[in-house]
Every structure is written in structure tokens, then in C-alpha cells.
Amino acid sequence: MKTPLILIALSGFFFLGSCSKGDSSAQPTGPSNIVINAAISNDGSGNVSFTTTATNATTFKYEFGDGTSEVVPSGVVTHKYTTPGTISYSVKVTATSSTGQTSFNNKLILVTVTPTYTNLVWSDEFNNDGLPDPAKWGYDIGTGSGGWGNQELQYYTARAENAVCEGGVLKIKAIKESYSGSAYTSARLTSKSRYEFRYGRVDIRAKVPATVGTWPAAWMLGTDINTVGWPACGEIDILEHRGSELNKIVAALHYPGRSGANPDVGTTTIQNASTEFHVYRLEWTGSSLQFFVDGNLFHSAANTSTMPYSKNFFLLLNLAIGGSFGGTVDPAFTTATYEVDYVRIYN
Length: 347
What we know:
The structure is a single chain. By secondary structure, the protein is mainly beta. The chain has two domains: 14-113, Immunoglobulins (Immunoglobulin-like); 120-346, Jelly Rolls (Sandwich), CATH 2.60.120.200. Helix content is 4%, strand content 49%. The protein has helices at 147-151, 225-228, 323-326; strands at 14-15, 32-40, 47-55, 59-63, 69-72, 76-80, 85-96, 102-113, 120-124, 138-139, 154-156, 163-166, 169-179, 182-186, 188-190, 196-197, 200-207, 214-222, 235-240, 248-254, 264-269, 278-284, 288-293, 296-302, 313-321, 335-346. The strands form four sheets. Strands 9, 11, 12, 13, 14, 17, 22, 23, 24 and 26 form a ten-stranded mixed sheet that branches. β4 and β5 form a beta hairpin. The longest helix has 5 residues, at 147-151.
């Protein structure tokens, strides 16, 4: 994974205060000439080394802007910021003299912390042959209104013919067959009401079909979809691919103002998407959403207060046929398989 750079922006104000009154020549002198330096590590760890100097100062109190503080005699201290993302912190340093007089200075720093995501909180390795684990996955059934809103052609089922675990791999199979008024069948798995989460890293190791007209996806929806509707609930597309544009990987965000045909979208082209497994990744924090293939960042978006990405979402895995994205289906199509080796979520 590409490690983002640590950035720093310094600004602020300078204020000197003294408890002395009257003739300053007869009173102890308080701290003055406060100078703050901040050196931010370039490894994404969030470590910032502070050095503060001042005339007539014996101790320095740091208020780091993240709810923590520390008093150091030397003015030299290293502090670790731990919240992932790019965040501005207002750092206040108060210098104190031997007589208790104080002066302070403020600085604004912009720190980028790279998420480590070492804690695996949920996963499915699909190691048990048979139907997908019902404790982890449910199904969307049928055609949905207007082909799930995209004019898709398949009928989603809960049959083993359309979704089965074999040899440690989930296989979602689209089949050309007449079924309940549709010309194709497939499956759409969902973790709704089984596993829902906010923020973290999602890794999906998958292999997509190459047939023209296929539309495999790994994506997420806000858990409040039944109350606020779409796109107000928000949608996060970690992986989309269409057989008509082989090896072109799409990631997208759909939300009010950027939905339907106008999403916040990023694309990248890889090799062997349909013949080899690749890891499709989302890194999601309170400040950003970043999308990767095999550790290579190809799209990122800021997560702002006006966007619906600071709440719980659930996962979906599906293989659609045709529709507004899948396009025209190859007339020779009979069956295609979307394979998922694992889904892993870290925080």
C-alpha cells in the first residue's frame, strides 16, 4: 500500500502574559521569545517531534489538540497522533518561569496518519463447501423494481445453482435459463442485519468473469436504506467490472448529488482480472475513502459532513447481467462465474 506523505502547515498567534505589575525592572521576568518547531515523521505513523524554546522558561506544557497534554522541563517531546486520516490539530504550548509566570503560543499542524488495520474483526474464507454461511449472508431475491433500478436482466435466487462454496471459494453463477419470467438467474448476497460496521479496511480477493454482459460487484449500502432510501443512504462500490471492458476496474461513491450516472468514480486497468485473483480494498475513515487494487491506490475521496459515510454500512456481493452498466449480453452466453476467495474486515 502506498504510504501517504505527512504534511505540516504552521500558523497561529503569539501572546505573552506576565503576572508582574509596576516597575518591570524590579520584578521577575516571565517567559518570552517562545519558538515552537514541529517535525512530523514521513512514515505515516502520526509521530510528531516538538521542540520549544523560550527565554526565562523552566517548564513547558503541551496541549496536543487531541485531548491529551504533557509537561516537560526541556521543551522537547514526541507525541503520537492515532486517529487515521488527515486532521488539523491546534497545539498550545505554555511556558512557565521559575517564579510561576506564564506565556503561551499556539500552532496549527496538519497530520496524516496511515491506518494500520491490524485487528481482523470479521471475515468469511468460504472454506465450508455448500451454501454460504447463513450466519453471515442473506439473499436479495427476485428482480427488484425495474431490474434493481438498473434494468438488469437476471432473477436473483437463493439456490445452490447460483451461489455455492467450493474448494474455499464462493462461486456466484449467472445462468441463462427461463426462471420466473426472467431469461437469466444469479445471486446477490448481503450481510444486512448480520454484519454492519462503520470505518475500517475491507479486503476482497476475487476473480471476475470475462463474458460480455456480466457485471460483478462488491459494494456497500447504508443500513438506513429502508428509512431514507437511495441514494440518501449512501453507496460504496469497492469493485465493479463489466465484461465488455475487460480488466477495467471501477470504484464509485453514490450519494445525493453524485448518484446514478453521476457518481464520484475512479478507474484503473489491471492485468488478468478474469484469470487471476486480485485484492480489491477499501480504506474508510472519518475523513476519507480510498480504493486500492493489489495495494495500489487508484481513487480517493474526502469524507465530509455533508456525505452519508459516517454511519454503519453492510456488504453485498452479486453478479448482475446486462442493465445500465453491464450493457448488451453476448448472444452466445450460457453461464459465467464470479469467484470470491475471501472477505476480510479490519479496524
